[in-house]
Predict the 3D structure of the following.
Amino acid sequence: MALTPEDVKDLHYSIHRMNSVAAVFRMRADNAMNDKFSTLADLIDLYVSLCQRSVGQGRDFVKDGLAITEEERVEANTLFERVFEGSPPAAPAAPAAAPAGKEHK
């Protein structure tokens, strides 16, 4: 079903509000001293840009969700992983050397 002018107006308003929230989030996130938290701002920016494109294509992103390309899916997954996954574990340390001293018989 095609979007009505009222639908388009509402969706544009929603995007405008999301952009406002995203701008404040980015400003605050960059001061959080946590790169993973700041990466959430990149994920939000990607989402908002996909919403804008959706409306431009005559789609309701709220009701219909978003149609994304494989490249965008990879980008979203990469951002998600940067936020939620920890650093790879360090290699196990070598066992400590036995202390020098008397030998037991």
Observations:
- Helices lie at 5-29, 35-56, 61-64, 70-84.
- The mean pLDDT is 88.
- The CA atoms of residues 26 and 41 lie 5 Å apart.
